[in-house]
Amino acid sequence: MKANKHSIWNFVSCNEKRFQALANKVWSTPETCYMEQLSMSAHVEELKYHGFSVKTGIANIPTAVLGEYGTGGPIIAFLGEYDALAGLSQKADQFRKVPIEKGGNGHGCGHNLLGSASMQAAVALRDWLRDSNLPGVVRYYGCPAEEGGAAKAFMVREKIFEDVDAAITWHPGCLPGIVKGSSLANCRVDFTFEGRASHAAVSPHLGRSALDALELMNVGVNYMREHMPDKARIHYAMIDGGGISPNVVQAKAKVRYVVRDETTPKMMELLKRVKRIAKGAALMTETKVKAKILAGVSNLVYNETLGDTMQGNLDQLGAPEFSKEENLYAKKYQDTLSRKDIESAYFHAGIDMVEGQVLAESVVSRDAKLVDMGGSTDVADVSWIVPTVSLWGANYAIGTPFHSWQMTAQGKSSIAIKGMTHAAMVMAATGSDLMTDKKLLDDAWNEHNRTIKKEGYMLPISLSASPPIKDMAP
Asked: From CA 173, how far away is CA 339, in angstroms rounded?
């Protein structure tokens, strides 16, 4: 990482220890989808320490937070997250799978870092504005439930971002670059089948098995896969198999589906087909089925104007400078990965593989090949409402898969924290550009409006009455 050329970077650096402590605290109390009470409280406490006014429970979501500071000028928002993943409990700095709690939660997607760096950037931008005697409003949005709960989509529906001029965020990763490709729109739906219980040996003819219906639905969807668009994805998990007694015909069963496709309209068409299969399975088994949409997100809209601005700051800053000891540490994790894991990291960054590279040594250039994310994010719904830009960080050994024990294990390391502060510097500098260059903001909005008019927008979450807080509870 090059010597500071931007005064705002000093404001980022001076708070590194505090935000390292915040990231580590959240790592140590991993909470999943809409259950992030301790993580949310830690973020509220830090916002108040830095003098931000704080609102909790925004958009009727108990673990959503808004911190604000300043008056006049543009409103620049930093988006943070702090939710963990189920089943990814892992001791820090261990080079093999060693859960802290068997079956427990863990930060296998780096959201302990994500929220901390976004707030670190927000505080630095506030300090820089105050030092420069400039007007402007800095906001930090603490957004729960990115992993499957689509909290930002509900926040969009409640117009939480309506007056924001630009939104900035990032995601921990291996190779630092701008998020340019789109993401997949998705919808999370529960299908509940209801039948009739009976004695499976004495009177099986009187029973109508909800489990049979569920299994037939899964078979039908699996046969449909051959006839889906190439980029579409469908996943499912059995939530309730109807009980543990095989001698009872199961009267109720539930399966949860995630349906993904390139755009929201395409995803909704695919969802219709899945629903028809569910109805067919109910018809075959003489059961009833109900579908409940829990959450959904749109496809990400890239804003080239903001992307180029962030790329300029990333190029100026350069990659983090990792020590020999940090490379040796990261190599032990990379040795647990397959070559395909490592190749995949370079592929998704749009660059050629560098043999033997363990940690990022340079930034991904602006002319790298455009590759879509492949996954989904509720940042996408914000990107349809306000010009949004996002950064990939350099926090882990190259090739570390998302949603893995290796990612959880590296989450408190010096590499993770160094990459976190690096991301905060890029975001803060981008925020200062937007605060001081009206033409830049105008250009970003003009591009945004052209894109929205061309693509059209459908908010899948509008089909849900409220955030699925109870449905996501363990």
From this structure: 17
Q: Which of 415, 420, 470, 458 lies closest to 156 in space, CA to CA? A: 458
Q: Measured between alpha carbons, how far is 351 from 418 in angstroms, rounded to an integer?
A: 23
Whether residue 321 has pLDDT greater than 90: yes
Task: Please enumerate in sequence order all residues whose Cβ is within 8 A of that of 230, keeping only pairs 6 or more positions apart, or say none.
Answer: none
Comparing 101 with 374, the larger pLDDT belongs to: 101
> Which of 44-78 are b and which e, b meaning 16 or more Cβ less than 10 Å from the residue's Cβ?
bebbeebebebebebbebebbbbbbbbeebbbbbb
Strand ranges, E, within 148-224: 166-171, 177-178, 185-194
The letter for the amino acid at 42 is A
* Pairing outcome for strands 166-171 and 288-297: unpaired
The token pair at 219 is 């078979």
Each residue's pLDDT tens digit, 86-116? 999 999 999 999 999 999 999 999 999 999 9
Cα–Cα dist 276/307, whole Å: 41
Q: Please report the pLDDT score of residue 454 as a whole number.
A: 83
> In this structure, what token pair is assigned to residue 397?
């050994």
| pLDDT tens column, 120-130 | 999 999 999 99
- Helix ranges (DSSP H) in 359-462: 379-385, 405-409, 414-436, 438-455
- CA dist list (Å): 421 to 75, 194, 433: 23, 52, 18
Compute the average pLDDT of residues 131-152: 96
CA-closest candidate to residue 428, choices 128, 44, 14, 45: 128
Q: What is the pLDDT of residue 4?
A: 55
Helix pair angle (264-285, 210-224), 10° resolution: 140
Q: Is 108 exposed, middle or buried (0-12, 13-18, 19+ CB in 10 A)?
A: buried
Contact in structure between 255 and 191 (CB atoms under 8 Å)? yes
Strands laid side by side in the 388-392 sheet: 53-56, 65-69, 137-143, 75-81, 166-171, 388-392, 177-178
Q: Which helix (H) or strand (E) holds 257?
A: strand 252-261
pTM for the model: 0.93
What does DSSP assign to residue 367? Answer: T
List all residues 6 or more positions away from 65 whose beta carbon is below 8 Å from its beta carbon.
40, 43, 44, 47, 54, 55, 56, 58, 140, 141, 142
- Percent of the chain at pLDDT exceeding 70: 98
The residue type found at 108 is G
* Residue 73, phi then psi, degrees to nearest 5: 70, -175
pLDDT digits 0-9 by tens, 273-306: 999 999 999 999 999 999 999 999 999 999 999 9
Dump pLDDT digits (tens) for 178-200: 999 899 999 999 999 999 999 99
